[in-house]
Design brief:
- The protein has 134 residues and is α+β, with helices and mostly antiparallel strands.
- The protein has one domain.
- It is 31% helix and 21% strand.
- It has three helices and six strands; from the N terminus they run E-E-E-E-H-E-E-H-H.
- A four-stranded antiparallel sheet has the order 3-4-5-6, with helices on one face. A two-stranded antiparallel ribbon has the order 1-2.
């Protein structure tokens, strides 16, 4: 999987952590940084199914997360589910499980749908090839 294209990312080193990871710059927010050689992502929780509408400075419901293993950042056929995500902070008024579901079903929705369609297309092609030559 590509590095979360929908988010603007900033990199820091282990010595120089970003002091305000949720601060907006020119209409975008800094959604991630590298801490201890791992991507850490920041986002806002909200009731809207479009995550962009939940991303505004005044929203106090913030959370941060990372993938349980960095190798998943490079996977192209992985559908993200809560078992692949570690919640680092939860400043929302909902449970950790609900935030993890939000990350998978709202934040990763578009990427998961594209991956699911690509996986299904490959499976159909493989099946058709096997059917023809099998």
């Amino acid at each position: 999987m590509q590095k979360l294209k929908l988010m603007v990312c900033t990199m820091t080193t282990n010595k120089n952590y970003h002091s305000t990871p949720y601060v907006w710059h020119k209409g975008s927010y800094m959604a991630g940084e590298i801490i201890d050689d791992r991507w850490v992502y920041y986002d806002y929780y909200g009731e809207d199914e479009n995550p962009e509408k939940n991303r505004y400075e005044e929203n106090p419901q913030k959370f941060s997360y990372r993938l349980i293993d960095e190798k998943y950042n490079d996977y192209t056929s992985l559908i993200f589910t809560p078992k692949y995500i570690k919640l680092l902070s939860n400043e929302t008024n909902v449970s950790d499980e609900k935030v993890l579901d939000y990350i998978c079903n709202v934040v990763f929705r578009e990427e998961n749908e594209k991956t699911r369609e690509r996986n299904n297309k490959k499976r159909r092609e493989k099946y058709e090839t096997k059917k023809i030559y099998g």
